[in-house]
Specification:
Structural class of chain A: mainly alpha
Helix content of chain A: over 70%
Radius of gyration of chain B: 17 Å
Largest interface: A-B, 20 and 18 residues
Largest sheet of chain A: none
Order of helices and strands of chain A: HHHH
Largest sheet of chain B: none
Number of strands of chain B: 0
Number of domains of chain B: 1
Number of helices of chain B: 6
Number of helices of chain A: 4
Radius of gyration of chain A: 15 Å
Shape of chain A: elongated
Number of strands of chain A: 0
Number of domains of chain A: 1
Oligomer: heterodimer
Distance between the termini of chain B: 23 Å
Helix content of chain B: over 70%
Distance between the termini of chain A: 18 Å
Chain lengths: 120, 142
């Protein structure tokens, strides 16, 4: 369940990065549709946070430790919303570029989360 | 009255550094700040004895990132100059630490943020100060 969500968030984050990157390329600010996309990605990360904590409560262990695991889950949750707010303050292509960078950061965090959780 | 508002109110007279590309830059510096700071707090509190040099250098990197983020958000000519100096220090730090980790890997049982020129962070640590210096030089006010 957690691994499936990690893959889903990674794919969604990369799609968001491509989409907002395309908007930046076309010299456009973020629009309503982009914010709906950010909301979808954030919802997936929230689901991942809940599932991750439930797994921990059930007694499963993250390979690299609980502290790091939870810290990365929280960091992943914040990345896209903060970039989204910054794009509201910067209504140019650079706002879109910031959201694209935020989504890439999220994808990197997901790769790390996979390593942190998985034994081996 | 209307003509003098700019000079009487320093807050509006300050050069805004967080516009256009500056927004992307402040986001990346913010990410590196959070990443380096949380990493070094964890490493220093949990396992400082394993690699004291590496963890201290990571903490230094964190301080530099946090300070540059702050100056970028604050804006103004003084902050711009301070940020410029710090970007240069950051670049020097990345180059020195990066070379150091390659020449004497035995001194580093664990990696730092700036190990191998920031390899662990997709080389962002070496690219960030370069784009920072470019942006800060460009936004110098006339």
């Amino acid at each position: 369940m957690l691994d499936a969500l990690t893959v889903a968030v990674s794919v969604a984050a990369l799609a968001l990065a491509a989409w907002c990157g395309f908007a930046a390329y076309r010299d456009q600010p973020t629009k309503d549709w982009h914010f709906i996309g950010m909301a979808v990605v954030t919802f997936l990360v929230l689901a991942q946070l809940v599932v991750g904590i439930v797994q921990l409560v059930r007694g499963e262990k993250a390979e690299e430790g609980t502290t790091i695991f939870v810290a990365y889950l929280l960091g992943a949750l914040c990345a896209v919303p903060i970039a989204g707010f910054m794009s509201l303050a910067e209504r140019t292509r650079w706002g879109s570029a910031t959201v694209a960078a935020g989504a890439v950061v999220l994808a990197v965090l997901e790769v790390r989360l996979f390593d942190i959780w998985t034994v081996g | 009255m209307t003509g003098t508002t700019e000079t009487t109110e320093p807050a509006t007279a300050r050069t805004r550094l967080v516009t256009g590309p500056g927004m992307l830059l402040v986001w990346l510096y913010g990410v590196m700040s959070v990443g380096a700071a949380s990493r070094s707090v964890y490493e220093i509190s949990a396992k400082f004895d394993e690699a004291p040099l590496a963890y201290t250098l990571s903490a230094v990197a964190a301080v530099v990132y946090v300070f540059i983020t702050y100056t970028l958000v604050r804006g103004g000519e003084t902050a711009r100059r301070a940020a410029l100096v710090c970007c240069a220090a950051e670049l020097a730090g990345v180059l020195v630490v990066g070379t150091w980790t390659l020449v004497a890997p035995s001194a580093f049982p664990d990696s730092t943020v700036w190990s191998q020129f920031g390899y662990g962070y997709v080389f962002i640590p070496v690219l960030l100060p370069l784009s920072g210096i470019w942006w800060l030089r460009r936004s110098r006010t006339a």
